[in-house]
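2024-03-11 09:14:02 INFO queue: dequeued item Cytochrome P450, len=396
2024-03-11 09:14:02 INFO validating residues
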Amino acid sequence: MQLEPIFISVFSIFCNRPRVTFAERLVYSKDLAFSSYGEYWKELRKISALHLLSGHRVESFRTIREEEANFMVDKIRECCSSASSAVNLSEIIFSFTNNVVCRVAMGRKFGEDEGAKKFSELIMEFMNLIGVFNVADYIPWFSVVNNFNGLNARVAKNSKEMDCFLENVLLGMANDSTNRVSLVRDNIKAVILDLFTAGTDTSAATLVWAMTELIKHPEIMKEVQTEIREITKGKFCITEDDLGQMHYLKMVIKEALRLHSPAPSLIPHESIQDTNLLGYDIPAQTRVFINQWAIANDPMLWDEPEEFRPKRFLNTSIDYQGKDFKFIPFGAGRRGCPGILFATPNMELPLANLLYHFNWSLPNGVTSKDVDFAEELGIILRKKSPLLLVPTPCGF
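2024-03-11 09:14:37 INFO prediction written
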C-alpha cells in the first residue's frame, strides 16, 4: 500500500496542536507553534514568513551571519593561546546562534557580559519548561501537584522575566495595517519568542551533535575538511557563496538531523474532525503523536540506521523540506517548521568555519570511546554534557 498519498490527504485533519498548559502560559496562548489551526494561525504564519523567514529576508541577514561566524572563529583563536587547551564548543556554538537571532530580531546582541549569560539561562529555562512532562495535560485534576513540585512557580517566574525582556524588543509589526488579524503587543511578542527559541536552540543543538559525531568519526571529519579547503582554496574567510558547492558538508548536517533531530521524538497533533485512517476510526479532538525518531531509525527505510553515514544521502534528492516522509526533522505538512530557510545557513556557515579554520581533537586522556552521547530531556534534544574539544588553528 502506498502510504504517502494517504498521509497527504489527512494532513489537514491532523494539523491542530493539542492544548499544552505550560506552553499557553509561557507564549501568551498566541504563538505560531502551539496555536490552534485557523485564521489566526494562518495570519501569524504569513506574518512570520513575510517579515522574518522569506528567502529575501533570510538573504538580507547574510552579513550578520558572516560577521558572527568570523567573531566565533576569532574567539576560538584567542582560546588557542595556551597549548592543548580545550574549548567549550557547545557554549561557543550557542553564542553564535543566539547572537545571530538577537541581531535579526533586535538589531543588537548582548555580547559576553552578565546580561548575555542571564538571557541564555532564560532561554534554556524556557525550553526546559516547554518540554517538561506535565501530568495535568492528561489528567487535569492532577494540576494541584504542580503547586508542590515547583513547576508552577518556575513557569510564573520565567514568564514574567521573558515578558520583561520582550517588552524591550522593537514591536513595529503591531502597527502594520496590512495584517488581516488585529495584533496586539502579546501577539508580536509571541512571534518574536518563537524566533528566539526555535532559531537559537535547535540550530545550536544540531551543530553540537554534528561536531560530536565528527570527532567520533575522524575519517569523515577529514573528508569534509578536504572538501571545504579545496573549495575555499586558502581564503581568509568563508562566505555563503562558498556553501553551495559543499555537498559533503550538507550531507553531514542531514545525517546529524536524522540521528539527532532537535525536535521532540514524539510530535503532538490533534484531529479537527472525525476521520478514518488505515481502517481506524479516529474521533475529532483525538491527540496523536508522530514518532519521527522511529521513522528516522527504521531499518526498513534506512540501511544500518544507527550508524553515522553522511554518504547515505549521496546522489539522492532527500532533503528536510518535509516532502520525504522518512526524513522529517522539521516536520511536514501545514504544521511543518516555516523556518527552514532561516535555519539552513545558520547551520552550514558556522560548521564550515569550524572545520575550515581548525583541526579538532579530544582533550588529553579522552578517547573516541569516551565521547558522551547522552541527551538532555526536553523539547529540544540537546547533548547533555558540554562538548569539550581542542582546536588547532590551520595556517591559511
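2024-03-11 09:14:37 INFO annotate: The chain is about 50% helix and 10% strand.
2024-03-11 09:14:38 INFO item closed
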